[in-house]
Every structure is written in structure tokens, then in C-alpha cells.
Amino acid sequence: MTDEQSVRRVSEWDRDRLRTLANAHDTPLYVQDLERVRENCERLTAAFPDADVRYAMKAHSGRAVLETVHAAGLDAECASAGEVDRALAAGFGGDRLHYTAVNPPARDLEYVVDAAASTDGLTVTAGAVDTLDRLADRGYDGRLCLRVNPGVGAGHHEKVRTGAAAKFGVPHDRAVRVARDAVDRFDLVGIHAHAGSGIDADGLDSHRELVSRMGALARELTEPEAAAGDPDASPDPLNLEYVDVGGGFGVPYREDDAPLELDAVADATRDALGEVPGVALAVEPGRYVVADAGVLLTRVNTVKPTPDETVVGVDAGMTDLLRPAMYDAYHPIRNIGGANNEPDPADRESTPVTVAGPICETGDTFCRTRPLARPVRGDLLAVGIAGAYGYEMASQYNSRPRPAEVALNGDATVVRRRERLADLTRVEREAEPSRDGDGGPAPIDGDAGGVSR
Ligand SMILES: Cc1ncc(COP(=O)(O)O)c(C=O)c1O
After folding, report:
1. Predicted confidence band at 379 (pLDDT cuts at 50, 70, 90)?
2. 197 lines ligand 1 (CB under 6 A)
3. Is the pLDDT score of 134 beyond 60?
4. DSSP label at residue 215
5. Pocket of ligand 1 contains residue 68 by CB under 6 Å
């Protein structure tokens, strides 16, 4: 694979290696190729050479991925105290940590304020005056970035279009006033907006519009003359370090989808931002860094012909990869064979099949009547472009242990062991002393279930 290659398709993974891994570690199994993560980081920093590139770790927060991203020089964008905790553990110093607070629970704020006190340079991004008050109430007066609702969103599904959703950010027309007030209490270093996730070529106009609005806002804050006529504008220029225009760069899930031209996206972003002297551009992609670096391996356990369709039952389900059930998302699927005494899948006829998991929900279906090399019991299927929001959104619903994950970095290493049945009941067993006592919930060392450092 070359650095220029802009997407890694499921057909390009080494079939024999995937089969060996599945046989050694059982299925369902995530495989994450750290070399590809590195390449994606390099492609991003090459396309945005003057920008701060921050990895939105909600896409995949595994330690091995974080260490790879850290070594590649990207910062970390964290969505919770748990993510800040993971990023610190993976080696990110405060000066490379950006915590984005969305309706933050009190325990998250307390953790992050505490972390900021002991880790220089951490930045908190907040998108509600109420959140600013809650930070100030906790004695926080450090680096602050103001999240703005620019009134324009984009993304692969309505559930991930954030840019115009009232939940996110201070309304655009109040941003100047809120920013001006914020400088009295905090070290205001940036403004931020995020259009949404999975922006493809069709969504680029919205991305450009968002960036252009953020550029105008930055000029209004930093250049008093640009603010002439705005009664909310500060007569004094504010010293912003950056304008963060979010992440959301899409990847091509369908085999015939063209990859985004990253250089063109970067040029369009810079153009739309315009000149904001002394203020850097920041972007925070998640999916783009990890999506095509991961596959989910699953084994066929049941083949059921019905009058309307052939249902191929597999041992992974929506608990392992939620995106198809949650967003009707398409993931490419390749039959890599492995069933005893069966011809190589390349020598089998293609047949339309519905691939379904073991969860008792109709939505637990990876594809419907999609042509695949005729699957038989024992075959392995590789579900492609599964590295982003895959393991990360896995759950134990239906009391199913979460899968294992192997990282490829030359060698293959198990980086997350498969959960056992005992893991499903661990928190109940740990709560048990209180059941034997007065029946009330057990206080766990002053921790109401939050993060401990
Ligand atoms: C604030 C913020 N930044 C960045 C991202 C990353 O988006 P993506 O993974 O599509 O790049 C998200 C995703 O939800 C987000 O909410």
C-alpha cells in the first residue's frame, strides 16, 4: 500500500492473514492495522500542514490506536472525562488535549478541572453559558474554546448532523457577546464548530459555509474594524489562537464510492476560512483516521433459505457493530471462506444474501439481499471499514460479551481480550455487599461511577 492510496478497501486485506487471526483468536474479532492508522495521520497532516490536527478519539479510543496517533503528532479531542483519562494514559500531555463538553455531567467537569490543574495546557471547549458558569463555579479559569452553533450541518445521517442542532454550541448570533463575556473569566483561546460526521462530496458546500461563517466570526472577534456596526462586538481585539472547524471527513463505505480528495477539501477549507491574521486553523477528524484501518471478522453459523431471501446467520451482531442498525449504514462485506471442504470463495457463484446477527431484533442485520460469494456454514466474513465507531459503540445488550481486538503493527497483538461471561455480571457482583446489608446502593469509595485517576 502506498501513502497516496486514499482508501483501503476490504478486498485489499490479506485474506490468509485474516483467516489465521480468526482461527487463533476466535470470532467476532476486530482487526485494526496501526500502519494504516499512521498513513491516515500522515495524509491528514500533509493535506493540512499549517493546521492543528486533533484526533476525535470517540471514533476509536483503544490504547494502541491512541499511542499511534500520539506518535504521529496529532492532538486528542476528547468527548468525556473517560476519554481524557484514556488520552492522558496514552501519553498525551495537557497541551495536546482538547475536551469538548456537551451537557457535561458534574463528575466529568470535576475530573477535567482537576486534570487541568495538574496538566498544563488542557483546553476545555464549551457550548453553553450555563456550562461556562459551572466551570467558573468549580474555580476553572484556564484555556477555553467557545463552541458555536453555526446554523449549518452536514453528515451521513440526520442523527450525526450536529452543526444546526440546538443541542450543540452557543447560537451564532450570540457568539460575539458570549465570547466577550468569557474573556473576563477564562483564557479564551479559540472558537469551534462541527458540522457533523461522515461528510461526503455532496456535503462539502455545507462544510464550506460553516467554515466561512467561522472565519467571519473570528475576524469579528480579532479585528475591531471588522466588528464595526455590531453593538455586541468588543472594541478591543481578542487574542484567539485558533478556529476549530470540526471533523467529519467522510470515507467511502461503498465499493464504488469515490474517496474524498483530501487536498481539495483542505484547499476549500482554507479558502472558506479566509485570512484571520495570527489565528490558526484546527480540524478534528475521527473516522478518517481509523475507519479503513479496521475490519470485523465474523463466522457464518447458520444458512437458512426462505421463499424471499437466504438468511446467513453470523456470530457478530449489532452489539459488535451498531452502525447498520443505528444509521442504516452500509459496510462492505467479503466472504474470505474457511469452511471445510468448500471451494475458495473466488470460485463460488455470487448469490444475494441477507447477513444477520444473533440478537433478537430485526434491525440486527448487516445487509439485505446483497450479492456475496455463496456463504456456507463455517465461512468467515470480513466486514470492512469497521475501524471507526465499531468497537467503540459495542455493547453487552442481550448479555453478549464484547469481542476481542487485535492490532497489527508488523506483528499481531491482542489489545483487547474477548470479554467473558463473568465480565457481564462483574458490576453486579461488586455491588453485592450492599444487597446483603441494608438494601441501599453501595458507595464505592466516594466515586459515583465516574472516572478515577
Ligand atoms: C465535536 C466533534 N468533533 C469531531 C468529531 C469527529 O467526527 P468524524 O469522526 O466524522 O470525523 C465529532 C463526531 O461526532 C464531534 O462530535
Report:
1. very high
2. yes
3. yes
4. H
5. no
Q: Looking at ligand 1, which residue's alpha carbon is closest to its atom 13?
A: 197
Ligand 1 atom nearest to CA at 388: 9
Q: What is the DSSP letter of 418?
A: P
What spatial distance separates the first Cα and last Cα of the chain, rounded to whole Å? Answer: 40
Query: Which atom of ligand 1 lies nearest, measured to the CA of 287?
Result: 9
Contacts of 255 (CB under 8 A, 6+ apart): 9, 11, 332
- In tens, the pLDDT along 152-196 reads 877 778 877 887 778 889 999 999 999 999 999 999 999 999 988
Instruction: Decide: 169 in ligand 1 pocket, CB within 6 A.
Output: no
Q: Which atom of ligand 1 is nearest to the CA of 197?
A: 10
Three-state secondary structure call for residue 225: helix
Per-residue DSSP letters for 115-163? HHHHSTT-EEEE--HHHHHHHHHTT--SEEEEEEE-S----SSGGGB-T
Domains of the chain: 34-289 (3.20.20.10), 292-416 (2.40.37.10)
DSSP string, 19-55: HHHHHHH-SSEEEEEHHHHHHHHHHHHHHSTTSEEEE
Higher pLDDT, 417 or 228: 417
The predicted structure's pLDDT at residue 4: 52
Give the pairing type, strands 310-314 and 350-356.
parallel
Which of 99, 168, 284 has most ligand 1 atoms within 8 Å of its beta carbon, as the pocket-test mutant?
A: 284
